[in-house]
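so my prof wants the structure for this chain in the tokens format not the other one, which i didnt know existed until like an hour ago. anyway here's the sequence
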Amino acid sequence: MKKSFPMGHIERKVYLSSVSGVATTKTELISWFNKNVEDLDIYTTKSFQVRPNPGNREPVICETKSGDFGNSVGLRNPGMEKTLPELVQLKASGFDKWLNVSLSADNPQDFITLVKAFDDVADSVELNFSCPHAKKGFGASIGVDIDIAGEYVEKIHNATKDRKSLLFIKLTPNVDNIGEIAKRVVDMGADGITAINTVGPDLHIDPVSNTPILQNALGGKGGKSGRWVYSKALEAIKEIRRYIPDSIPIIGMGGVWSEKECFELIEAGADAVGIGSVLGHVRQPQWPLFFSALKKGAQDLLDGRVCDFSSKKYVSDERQMEYREHVVEDISFHSEDTLLLTLSGEVKDFKAGEFVFLWLPGVGEKPFSLAKTSPLTFIIKKRGAFTSYIFSSLSKGDKIYIRGPYGAEVKTPKAKKALIICGGTGEAVAFPLAVELQKEGTEMSFLVGTSVKGDKGILDKELSGFGSYKATSDNGQPGRVLSLLPEEIEKTGIDGAYYIIGPEIFMKIASSILKDKGIPTERIMLSMERNTMCGIGLCGECSCGGHLECQWGTFMSLAFLEKEGAI
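here's what i got, hopefully its the right format
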């Protein structure tokens, strides 16, 4: 039997939903919301496809004006085979909230396969007929044509009549007849409507470089989301409701940032209100308070009571993705695959546990820890297309752009002594950490592993000024430096603080050695540098144990990581 969808506009009650591609993009983030955010009623996943999709290269999200976002993720997702078992496990763990699984395909048969596959875990499935920057055949390629949209829904509905989940269709606002399209898909078997997806695509120009920001096959065009689409969303919900019965639920969304906008969408006919881009202006630790204030305030407005609009105190008015121009002052090669990049200017108030993005227009962007603030110095390891360009094509005098910092300052365990263990290019993180520990009067020792012969670290001269410094080359044995760890533990002691920086396997081995020596797990801090694509809490890529590194910082205690099963 299909579940009954909460009918907010009829009940005069506020129901809040997450939106596809924002915040609840991974099962561990869904679990985090379930534990911490009481006022989220509907959990929407990112759009999953039958096969994995790498999506577009970064930048995939931009903000040209405070609250006005552009996006071109390109339906990046890990595919059905990886995602489905994770959601099965989530449901088995006792998760009992409404789960709205977003699905994407370029043909009816793939949609049918997806609907049948996710039917046991989903309360509703949301078919993405609306992504404006997807490849040909996906997203808006379906939703802009009333006949194609209707044909798809008819075929999918007829092939899945025994499904338990409700069939929602996510519509594009980039049409003149969204109400008619909504009616057609409902007539063909849809149980509900989601609207709107992003507006566009448009070209998003950075005001500093005067170049397109987004990186894709559309020449930098991407969808519009955030505050500048709200009026479009409101009109679309009004029109959809005029064309479909009150018994058909609508999940309304698009630029909702306040109690007033949430209230207005429900008045227009939405049964649940999707909350998305505003979370890029609210710190994750404050998401529970924000959702609570938003829901209470919107309910006050629905009930005719005075609203205090208290959610606004959690929302930053400042632009979160602002690029600043810098100039390459020096490029110094440490080895054939490692260099030091020195730039003009500064990054204000940078702390250990934070990171910034480097952006080269037309090439891409990637996150990096800032090794030194004076002069502005980065350690760059040659890995993919972006760093390869730096190695082969970047020259002294070239312009490069920085946004950030993101993350949060590390909360250092109180200790008289600290041992900082680095592998790979971890010294980039060690230097700002040493600056902070020096302020606390902490006695420091450094144990550094390097792939360069001769036992020479990248920042050996700088770090040796803070305390004892030992660098050991791998000599063909990765992580060889860890053989010296037991001796250093004896010197630092059980009451010392331990910081591990480097590849995750390196940190796991080092953590195991420390635990075997009796070091408490809350005194062991790891720099967990997961992939991140936006830096402001929207994409969810940097989630580690449910904590977004762009919000909480990269350093996390081993106690936390083990508790959350993140290592």
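also thought this was worth mentioning. DSSP finds 17 helices and 27 strands in the chain.
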